[in-house]
RNA sequence: GGAGAGGUGGCUGAGUGGUCGAAAGCAGCGCUUUGCUAAAGCGCCGUACCUCAAAAGGGUACCGGGGGUUCGAAUCCCCCCCUCUCCGCCA
């Protein structure tokens, strides 16, 4: 959520920044300003009336104590009371309208972000390793998975419908090994605190991180829309300290969490349906940071590096791209995507999206810290996958496949997997 | 699921219709006393919003959330959320 004062004082700047995202958010600014103007006018009038009532009511108290008659004043206050209740309603309405409008507005992209329209305009920041070459004909993960019995999408669809996967045998073990490998890496080497959060999320928390109210169609809702299945651990973990004022000394806070993630993937029907690249439920290890505005940009670089480390240790070639203004997520001010090379797809797959949300989420969830001057300010929140499992799984089996159809397990993963190969 | 208790400022905790944004204590900040530490004394010490060109100042709201009763609500009534205890069920 953007600061209404920023919009009020620098409407042109806000409009211009929002326009770089594409979409029509920048066209809403006039409506918001008008709403804000009305709201403040109502509020000022309401406050004056409240003041009158407060003063006169006290007067009644005083007169009663002295045994003086109060009927006339009471009549007067009754009249004020009726005015107040009508004005109160209007003010609350204006308040709600303004909040609704603000909640629909995406975050401002960072001033130095590359300007662009869509994914085609995302500049590459760096690459690690290189595309492996093979002297045999490559299989993709679907073929490998079927041959080695690693997962079973057909049977998963019998119980859950299309877009679900059931890992089996060595595949299930590999999935579990990857989760544990990532958790251990981030807790032991990168100093994140492991949390295992609930997966059912209340509306407020979903609003806090920005999934609601705008993207309800992408979420799985339960209990008549009271709670939702977590689409990412970002939601429960970032909300951990909502409505709190953190001490400067405890920032930045670093969390890592494994959760399954549930996404309806509405609007992407038919895309990437082969294999396990886009599914409604997948495992992910997520990194979350709560930081100060002074350090958050630096923390984003570190968080991205922490996520990259997963791929490096598994010997997987990847590239990091910076999202242009038109391709960034709703709440993000700056995002790096990490894309791992999947030889069987002949394509890079997004396995992590590392973002600084600045105070966008913190404002929604009222998450603050006390700065060195003792002032309460909004935190900056960050998150990134470290990493998403199914695509990591895909890249791993496709990269490390052998001529004989077996899959070699990278050394760093062997202690977790318990073997050096799958055959 | 049933029965009960409770949610007040950073913390503890008073306050059952009026002058209460809220006693007191603790913590914190400043000053005084002091050789240092300790202690004592004094003062300050919530948040949001509105108003103001800005600062100063002024104002309104907030005692879990929402609604109601009343001239007036932390206090009375209703609904919801959360926490705790006991019972039931259960991995």
Topology (SSEs and partners):
Blueprint: H1 4-9, H2 11-19, H3 29-66, H4 71-103, E1 124-128, H5 141-148, H6 153-160, H7 169-189, E2 193-195, E3 200-202, H8 203-209, E4 221-222, E5 227-229, H9 234-238, E6 245-247, E7 253-262, E8 281-291, H10 296-313, E9 318-322, E10 334-342, E11 347-356, H11 360-365, E12 368-370, E13 376-378, E14 380-388, H12 389-399, E15 407-408, H13 414-417, E16 421-422
Parallel strand pairs: 2-7, 6-12
Antiparallel strand pairs: 1-9, 3-5, 4-5, 7-8, 8-14, 9-10, 10-11, 11-14, 12-13, 15-16
Helix pairs in contact: 3-4, 7-12
The structure holds one RNA strand of 91 nucleotides.
Q: Describe it for me?
A:
The structure is a single chain. The chain has 423 residues and is an alpha+beta fold. Strand 10 and strand 11 form a beta hairpin. The protein is elongated, with a radius of gyration of 27 Å. It binds one RNA strand of 91 nucleotides through helix 3 and helix 4.
Short overview:
The protein is of the alpha+beta class and 423 residues long. Helices cover 41% and strands 20% of the residues.
Average pLDDT over all residues = 92
CATH topology assignment of the largest domain: BirA Bifunctional Protein, domain 2
Helical element count? 13
Spans with pLDDT under 50 lasting ≥5 residues? none
Which overall shape is indicated by the principal axes computed on the Cα atoms? elongated
How many strand elements?
A: 16
Order of helices and strands: HHHHEHHHEEHEEHEEEHEEEHEEEHEHE
CATH superfamily of the largest domain: Bira Bifunctional Protein, Domain 2
Question: What portion of residues belong to β-strands?
Answer: 15-25%
Spatially, the strands of the biggest sheet line up as 1-9-10-11-14-8-7-2
DSSP helix fraction: 40-55%
Gyration radius, rounded:
27 Å
Major β-sheet annotation:
8 strands, mixed
* CATH architectural label of the largest domain: 2-Layer Sandwich
Return the CATH class of the largest domain.
Answer: Alpha Beta
Structural class label: alpha+beta
What's the end-to-end separation, in Å? 51 Å
